Amino acid sequence: MTGRPQPAQGQIIHVTGRLLTSDGRPISGAHIEIWQCDVNGRYHHVDSSLRSQRADDNFQGYGRTITANDGAYRFRTIRPVPYPGRTPHIHFAAAGAGIERLITQMYVAGEPMNDRDGVLNAIRDPRARQAVIVALEPADGLEPRALGARFDIVLG
Ligand SMILES: [Fe+2]
Fold it and tell me: How remote is the CA of residue 37 from the centroid of ligand 1, in Å?
């Protein structure tokens, strides 16, 4: 989040995790991208149906990084919020040499709309569904009042 004098609105979260093969090997040097709506439910980098909502221009809406030797990545962003028809989520894409581009979404445990979200519940396998729902925990060690989430992305 650079280039803006004001911070984005919303609860700061730090999302960390690793990109792994299906048998648990770390994938280094891969690109991880995230995108999500701002605190008002507006996307900045994809066409948004919510033009009536005021955009938070201080929210970047998109992030990109490269996984480390141990497959680790880290993003500082805001806690995702719901928008009409969707429970809170962050979009993720992973791509790199020798891996097929993977698109997924990260969800937050305990969100009341999780049970009714069509995209989340289209994941029929309960274990696979649980794997994309993460708990937010205090992350004061990283940043006062911030929350942290751990989201490992497993290919295949
Ligand atoms: Fe979305």
Answer: 7
Q: Which is higher by pLDDT, 1 or 10? A: 10
Distance 96 CA to ligand 1 centre (A): 23
Q: How many CB atoms lie within 10 A of CB 115?
A: 9
Give 58-114 pLDDT, tens digit per residue. 888 899 999 999 999 999 999 999 999 999 999 999 998 788 899 999 999 999 999
CA of 46 to the centre of ligand 1 (A): 9
Number of C-beta neighbours around residue 106 at 10 A = 21
Query: What CATH number does the domain containing 128 carry?
Result: 2.60.130.10
Whether residue 5 is contained in a domain is answered as: no
Q: Is position 4 within any domain? A: no
How far apart CA 113 and CA 23 sit, in angstroms, is: 32
The CA 56 to ligand 1 mean position distance, Å, reads 16
